[in-house]
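Sanity check record (used in CI):
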Amino acid sequence: MTDLGGGYTLRPIPLDGYRAACARLEGQIFGGTWGYAFGPPTLSAPPLGETFTWGISHGEEVVGWQYSHRTDERTVSMADTGILPAHQGQGLYSRLLPHVLDAFRTAGYTLVQSHHRATNNRVIIPKLRAGFLVQGLNLYEGGVNVALTLSLDAAYRDAMHVRSGFAQAHGDTARRLGVSALPQPPAPPVPVIPLPDDASAGVDLGGEYTLHAVPEATYRAVYAQLEAAVYDTVSFEWPHAGRHAPPDVPQYAWLVAHGGHVVGWQSSRQWNARTAYMTNTAFLPAHRGRGLYTRLLPVILAFLRGQGYDLVRSAHHATNTAVLLPKLRAGFRLQGLEIGDHGVMAVLIHSFDDVYREYMDVRSGLKRPTGEVARRLGLDGG
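Expected output for Acetyltransferase:
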């Protein structure tokens, strides 16, 4: 038995015990979701591989479970975790994850996979914090799922970063991928750029950091000077410039300053009639890992909302968890993956409209269509 804190414990239970708990409690846990009701199965289920089943208790009361099973010679699937609503929102999922993952590691697995409704940030966030990486979205009988994979092998974890374009292949990862990176010149020294004179008065971001609106041309000039110092990702190099002028839409740009010098930026633009696009955010390496992105987000979102946008879109390398996490915490929802010049990108959307936000939950199957969402979809939501 494992103490999870707060009076909660995690202990192994028989497979039949897990099934009995499901039959008794799943209506309370998953009753508000929206899935497709198949008829009785026509074929028998395939034989199960190795299974892992745990019960979650609070005192003497069983309040949830975790069930996983082997899917192939190196992979285990975290197929089902359920916690009664009264015991959700207390960090239980985050606290049980390390113990479950240790069991898989001890059992010799290389990969851990899981699937969750794509808008269920309350589960996706702790999974990403534990090292899982986004693999994609798919339609299934329960709605729209996001597939996540955790690699317990460091080289394969690095290979996923290479696949997404977030990092170059080196060492054992390059060997296993059958490639070698071209030699690169030494990194140039990082330019020291004073905050330009045409920057607006700063918004305090804490920690002596400030955010300043600047003209688009000023942002572009700073970007050109600092780009090499900010990015070590791998993008496709077009042999020629684009043949058409970029769309003539509103552009918004800010510089982040520390000690009177530029250490980062944020740029956004109009995407369509109701959507803004957070085009680019970057900080010099010495200023990362300080919560700057988390503190910057509310300021940018408030500005874009004030401009009349209903939605905010962004795209990030699919394995760039350091950016995906604050975006999901701020209310962005995963929309899918796309391949572009910069690699495999996770597309996110933030809605300022409460009904549209609930609509995304309905599309994913996390919620049943009721009330105003049902009406807008032409459904009788009860």
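The chain has a mean pLDDT of 95. If this sentence no longer matches the regenerated tokens, the check is flagged for review.
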